[in-house]
Design a protein that fits this description.
single chain, 76 residues, mainly alpha, 2 domains
Length: 76
């Protein structure tokens, strides 16, 4: 598919969208398409790496369990 064909396809898809929130999200994405991707700080990268290790070790909980814990924390 050529660039022109891709653009036409995108325009057709956008024109078919009737949900206002979706259109707002699409516009926001397009407006920010050329913005630089922010770089993560060292502590953020380390936190992500630790999370990945925890996941690999099976140290995970279900969404339902997380929701229960959050409710408990909020009640304190």
């Amino acid at each position: 598919m050529t660039t022109a064909e891709l653009k036409e396809s995108i325009v057709r898809e956008v024109q078919a969208v009737s949900d206002e929130k979706m259109l707002e999200l699409l516009l926001m994405a397009l407006e920010n398409i050329n913005s630089p991707i922010p770089e993560l700080e060292e502590w953020q990268l380390k936190a992500i790496e630790e999370s990945e290790r925890q996941f690999e070790r099976g140290e995970v909980i279900t969404k339902e369990e997380a929701d229960r814990k959050i409710l408990q924390w909020l009640k304190k």
